[in-house]
Task: structure prediction
Amino acid sequence: MPSTARPNTIVLLSMGYDSLSTWHQLGRPAAVYFDVGSQYTDPEVDRYHRLRTAFPQLLPVQDMRWLGRQERHDRWVPLRNLVMTVAAAALGYDDIVMSAPSDWAPDKRLTFTFATSLTLRIAQPGVGYRVRRPFSHWTKAKLIAATPPKLLEEYAYSCYEGTEPPCGRCAACGRAIIAHLAAGREPPTELRPGLSFGELMDLRRGRTNGSRLAEASRMRPGELVYVPLRGWELLRAWDAYRRRPV
Ligand SMILES: [Zn+2]
Result:
């Protein structure tokens, strides 16, 4: 396995497909999970503990439940990535890796990683802190396709409902279904046959997440960059979906 991990690298693991794949691509260096007390914490912590048994380079779960109270309706927790980044640095790591494939969140952008790297270097001169998101130009599908299925099947969890097994209906489950199809993999949750292209596309928004127009109006300027990548992923997913045996 080619490794581009540096000796003091740490990956911020959320146990979703993106971060687990990122961790794998870097040669499985140290990693850490921050428990923010979300609705979906339990299945994530359970998987992290199992992963840590197999990979002792993983740090113990870090309690950050006090931050979870800030979680918004779209599941974004303001300042989470900033607090996690600083905590990872304070734990003794100088190469801090975030996973952010084609992501809109302001605290996953290049400006964020650049500014936090600079702030950490100012706060502690002499340490070459680096915060990075090495696969930011990849889609979720590309990350999944480059990662052994077994690792993802055994340890990845991505469902906002926190159910076991994942609900298959929320936006996180929908995005996982589409990315798996586009990656040529079997989706992690059940996928009903006979969907139209629009219905397949709507899986990304989950059952209760508003109309396409509302989605467009919520789109941040930084997100526009990723529209072609996401469109490509969606077309690949649609092609794979149509070829599936019914
Ligand atoms: Zn779900």
Notes: The beta strands are 9-12, 30-32, 34-35, 62-63, 95-97, 130-132. The domain at 9-132 is CATH 3.40.50.620 (Rossmann fold). The CA atoms of residues 228 and 234 lie 10 Å apart. The longest strand covers residues 9-12.
